[in-house]
Amino acid sequence: xxxxxxxxxxxxxxxxxxxxxxxxxxxxxxxxxxxxxxxxxxxxxxxxxxxxxxxxxxxxxxxxxxxxxxxxxxxxxxxxxxxxxxxxxxxxxxxxxxxxxxxxxxxxxxxxxxx
Length: 115
Description:
Layout: H1 5-49, E1 54-55, H2 57-64, H3 68-77, E2 93-94, H4 95-111
Antiparallel strand pairs: 1-2
């Protein structure tokens, strides 16, 4: 059996060129995706790290894992500190006071004896 190394070498070179072209195409695609995604991720990151002065009822509901009605009830009970300006319908929950009362409530509940 006669083996032709020249043909085999050309096939290998052709496969290598194809592989290089595919790799370059993938790199370009990844670069395009990163150009679109990175600014969005940075924006989300900034929003998460930024602690606003006030929280909305919806934001507190997400943090607590309950519905907005529950948060409004807790505001009325005085469990969650909030203010409402004259003529406004929505509550403003001071974030610093909220987080302070939240840790207070957690520490009280850890001592509660349930039997």
